[in-house]
Write a structure and sequence with these properties.
The complex is a heterodimer of chains A (273) and B (69).
Chain A: H1 3-15, E1 18-20, E2 23-25, E3 29-32, H2 39-49, E4 53-60, H3 72-75, E5 82-85, H4 93-106, E6 112-115, H5 128-140, E7 144-149, H6 153-162, E8 166-169, H7 183-192, E9 198-200, H8 206-214, E10 219-222, H9 224-227, H10 232-252
Parallel strand pairs in A: 3-4, 3-10, 4-5, 6-7, 7-8, 9-10
Antiparallel strand pairs in A: 1-2
Helix pairs in contact in A: 2-10, 4-5, 5-6, 6-7, 8-10
Chain B: E1 3-7, E2 10-14, H1 21-27, E3 36-39, E4 42-44, E5 59-67
Parallel strand pairs in B: 1-5
Antiparallel strand pairs in B: 1-2, 3-4, 3-5
Chain lengths: 273, 69
């Protein structure tokens, strides 16, 4: 029933893929897989989001009686989705590199990875010194590094020079849902970067995602905004539409802002009376 | 005779000493699971489980992919 209305969008997104290190993705929305009620809801929300790239964390496996519990990889088979293992929870370059090497072994040599080195357990603000160190080591080791960082354009440039394949500044703090707090810094990073810039962290609702895309971001990565919505599956769909709408608005080029126009949309002549 | 080995930061009591990482993976019911194994801080590639021997003081980390953002 919705097919005719959806088709033009679909065609547009096909013609305008997100390209990361030479690989094209139809969806510009990347989603995390944490904080859902259960695996069934995780899958339903990921599918509603239209995301092709999903982030996962690497943790000690359950031993003993829990060894046969269902796994995330059964829920979201790597044949259907591109996995983006992260180093979430790491506070040093050493831990992040170690975690991502384990992820690469786990995923049979899959080199696309999300580097994240945190600096503070309360705010989850990134530690950019450790992030830079880890990025250098990972790039040298053949990883394709999508890097979570602050919205500092100088650090973003250094991460690009190191060889990261995508720069992912925060819009606001992880899990905060505070939205796009510094659109001007994001603009600076987008303008200077030759690799895709994705907002990672801070999106709270659909309009935040649309604003990120209207600023010219190549994509948006989110987890909490969907998983902690009252209806995560519906929010996942909202985010898909917001990212598509924001991208289209960016490509379309918005009209200039004016305090007033004195130029109504209806003709000024031919009025009765 | 049981055998104690540190896996994921905890002592695991196994029925007997596994000779190789492949045997350890079997003993922990992890055959066929998507995991990665570290022995004393070094990754053991899947292809080398059979050939990697185990000493009593080895420390293992065995990880899996879980939900995350």
């Amino acid at each position: 029933m919705n097919a005719p209305a959806d088709q033009p969008n679909f065609a547009a997104t096909l013609a305008d893929p997100l390209v990361i290190n030479g690989t094209a993705y139809r969806s510009r929305l990347l989603v995390g897989t944490g904080k859902y009620r259960d695996f069934a809801q995780t899958r339903e929300a990921v599918i509603a989001s239209g995301a092709q790239i999903v982030t996962v964390a690497i943790r000690r496996t359950n031993l003993g009686q829990d060894a046969n519990a269902p796994s995330l990889l059964d829920t979201l088979p790597p044949s259907e989705f591109t996995y983006l293992p992260n180093s979430a929870g790491c506070y040093t370059a050493d831990d992040a590199v170690r975690t991502l090497k384990l992820a690469r072994e786990l995923l049979d040599g899959h080199a696309l990875t999300k580097l994240e080195v945190l600096g503070d357990a309360n705010t989850l603000f990134p530690n950019v010194r450790e992030t830079l160190k880890a990025a250098e080591r990972l790039v040298a080791d053949g990883f394709q590094v999508m890097v979570y960082t602050s919205d500092d354009p100088i650090i973003a440039r250094e991460l690009e020079q190191i060889g990261c394949v995508a720069i992912m500044p925060l819009a606001s703090l992880i899990g905060s849902g505070m939205g796009i707090l510094n659109p001007w810094n994001l603009r600076l990073i987008i303008e200077q970067s030759k690799v895709p810039v994705l907002v990672d962290a801070g999106v709270g609702t659909a309009s935040d995602a649309a604003i990120a895309m209207e600023l010219g971001c190549a994509g948006v990565l989110m987890n909490t905004a969907i998983a902690l919505a009252t209806d995560p599956v519906r929010m996942a769909r909202a985010m898909r539409l917001a990212v598509e709408a924001g991208r289209d608005a960016f490509l379309a080029g918005r009209m200039p802002r004016k305090l007033y126009a004195a130029s109504p949309s209806s003709p000024t002549s031919g009025l009765i009376g | 005779m049981s055998f104690d080995l540190v896996v994921n930061g905890k002592v695991q009591r196994l029925p007997s000493q596994p000779a190789t990482v492949a045997e350890l993976v079997r003993a922990l019911n992890l055959v066929g699971k998507r995991i990665a194994v570290e022995r004393n801080g070094e990754i053991v590639p899947k292809g080398l489980y059979d050939r990697t021997t185990i000493s009593p003081h080895d420390r293992f980390e065995i990880v899996a992919a879980v939900g995350g953002g």
